[in-house]
Amino acid sequence: MGTVALFTGAVSRLLISFSSSSISISFSPSPGMVDVIFADVAQPDQARIVSLNAQHFLKNGGHYVVSIKANCVDSTAAPEAVFASEVKRLAADQLKPREQLTLEPYERDHAVVVGIYKPPPKK
Which 3-state string (H, E, C) describes the chain? Predict the structure, then answer.
């Protein structure tokens, strides 16, 4: 089947399957285990939403991509402080960040964090 990704947006869960020759997209209220979670959910509890989806659907060693919208989490704090706080929450739930990028100048006060869930132990 190839790689299976779960897209969590504001409205629904989309299950996307990739293989070398095709892409399949479907709505799935209960997708089973997936390889990647992409979360774009403009909610104050974004990190908690990603964490819960990872605990239920993401394979150990699977990857996640989360779009953090600072103003949706806390409109009174500096965006950098919000990003740091959300990354800390993710890490506390075994979502180890690998890379963080701001989306300036395309999107103000937005960042994308890419990481791995329950990474395998280092050899």
Answer: CCEEEEEECCCCEEEEEECCCCEEEEECCCCCCEEEEEECCCCCCHHHHHHHHHHHHEEEEEEEEEEEEHHHHCCCCCHHHHHHHHHHHHHHCCEEEEEEEECCCCCCCEEEEEEEECCCCCC
